[in-house]
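Possible regression after last week's pipeline update?

I re-ran a chain I had predicted before the update to compare outputs. Posting the input and the new output here so someone can diff against the archived version. Not blocking, just want to make sure nothing changed silently.
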Amino acid sequence: MTTKLLKKLTISDVILILACLIVAGLLWRNHAAAEGEMLYIYKDGSLWGEYALAQDKVIEIDQHNTVQILDGKARILSSDCPDKRCVKQGFNKTMPIICLPNRLVLEFEHRSKERRLILQ
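New output (post-update):
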């Protein structure tokens, strides 16, 4: 029975099946990755808070900085530093976002990874 079915498949059928499998795999991978991603916020060298990137929210750190988590990525929404380089970085989920004048660091990690030791 399966040999008859395989003989009736055309190239377009195979391409359609492969495209569906690729799209399903990408959707599953992005969903699984977003579940374990964490945002660690450091203020003045100490851990200020940790948040899951899967939940959209706006976090007010202090009167100087506001962080936004949206669609599995985070950014510094507002800052009163002079050059606003941290705000201009935009959304990210891999590279740290640093605001030097306000001594704020956003670090991204997966829950299963071991935490790194930060020495100052």
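Follow-up from reviewer: compared with the archived run. The chain has a mean pLDDT of 82. Marking as no regression found.
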